Amino acid sequence: MNVREQILEWVERDRESIIQFLSGFVATPSPNPPGDTRDAAQFVLDHLKAQQVPAEIRCAKDWLPNVVASFEGAQPGRHLVLNGHIDVFPAGDAGTWSRDPWSGAVEDGKVHGRGVVDMKCGTAASIWTYIYLYRLREHLSGRLALTCVSDEETGGTWGAKWLVETFPEEFRGDCMLNGEPSVPNMVRFGEKGTLRVVFEIDTPGAHAAYTHQSANAIRLASRLIEDLYGLEGIEVRQEPGIRQALLNSADAINAGLGEGAADILSRITVSVGVIQGGVKINMLPGHCHFEVDIRLPIGATHAMLIEKIEQIVARYPQARFTPVWTHSCEPTHSPPDHEMMGILKRTVTSLGMPEPAAAVSLGATDAKHWRQRGVPSYVYGCRPTNMAKADEWVSIEEHLHIVRTHALAAAAYLGA
């Protein structure tokens, strides 16, 4: 049997089923927060069972189910893990959308709705890949596992992290393939890290007319914030191979994510996302709270940033800070010349697309949980069209391309 031809034949035959599955998946809301993904997980489980594919739910928290499955090929070999997440961003104000955020509408050659890009398109590709390769298991060597997880949007503690720590023999693997949005002209071998920090400033406060009696907590916060933005000027040293890969992928990254994206891949970036302070306009504020998201390029570390933050905060005796470790992670990367990278590049070009560049992601994914444990992990997915914005959508043809690429690449890795 020609495995490649069979997979391509099935994708073409199942075209409408693939589209309708993605539509129904999007139409089953799974916003995080609040994070209850039980309906969406059941939707996935029911689909796998309808395709006569054994699968099950495993979870540490009832409202955060993970749909998992695995099988052995006919011959011994390597262990590949497919990973995608079920939870998605909240929809926000439905009034800003052109249609119901949870419609899953199939219109104008697109599937619409919250989470279709991040990342139900990619998770669906993992699901169909698993279905097709399960049918072809007698032609494969090694082991294939499927992990459709909850909790990615809030760090993965009870999703990917819990699975690889609790069931390492089943879900750690020798390599991991993920379908997070990445733009089809890139295969992501690494990602920037995150450091999330909460700051509190306390002063006595006073009547607004008596500014001589107390420092203004909001004014101090403004000065501290400006100093924190100075972290963006820290020079980060990178391994020559990583630096060269980033230089080689600069055009592809700018083309896919917008001009300027490549410039910040090797830089620390700072974003103050929340600031709260004051009670009334004629009261001098005695408290200010703000939250900062810092992104670390490969080569930077939490320890490096914490040291710099301590030096800055030392100039503000009224201030204190607390890192949010549950939502922070170090930068991670896998070898940019790994076999899976080559397989993905060859697969994409064989499907008539330009060869994708080896790149690093600006955002975080569950791939970090595998990379932190030494498992090479690679991400190939759709364009991030309106990701985290109103009117999120994915092109049907692009979705089908992601399905074909994942299925063919996984089969090739498993010896077919």
Question: Explain this structure to me?
Answer:
- This protein has 416 residues and is an alpha+beta fold.
- The protein folds into two domains: 3-191 and 331-413, Zn peptidases (Aminopeptidase), CATH 3.40.630; 193-238 and 259-327, Alpha-Beta Plaits.
- It has 14 helices and 18 strands.
- The strands form five sheets. A six-stranded mixed sheet has the order 1-2-6-3-7-17. Strands 11-13-9-14 form a four-stranded antiparallel sheet, with helices on one face.
- A hairpin with a 7-residue loop joins strand 1 and strand 2.
- Helix 4 (116-135) crosses helix 14.
- The longest helix has 20 residues, at 116-135.
- The protein is globular.
- The model has no long low-confidence stretch (mean pLDDT 96).
Q: Secondary-structure blueprint of this entry?
A:
Elements: H1 3-13, H2 15-26, H3 38-50, E1 56-58, E2 66-72, E3 75-85, E4 106-107, E5 110-112, H4 116-135, E6 141-149, H5 160-166, H6 168-171, E7 175-178, E8 186-191, E9 193-202, E10 206-207, H7 217-229, H8 240-248, H9 250-257, H10 261-264, E11 269-277, E12 283-284, E13 287-296, H11 302-313, E14 319-323, E15 332-333, H12 339-350, E16 357-361, H13 367-371, E17 377-379, E18 393-395, H14 396-413
Parallel strand pairs: 3-6, 3-7, 7-17, 8-16
Antiparallel strand pairs: 1-2, 2-6, 4-5, 5-18, 8-15, 9-13, 9-14, 10-12, 11-13
Helix pairs in contact: 1-14, 2-4, 4-14, 12-14
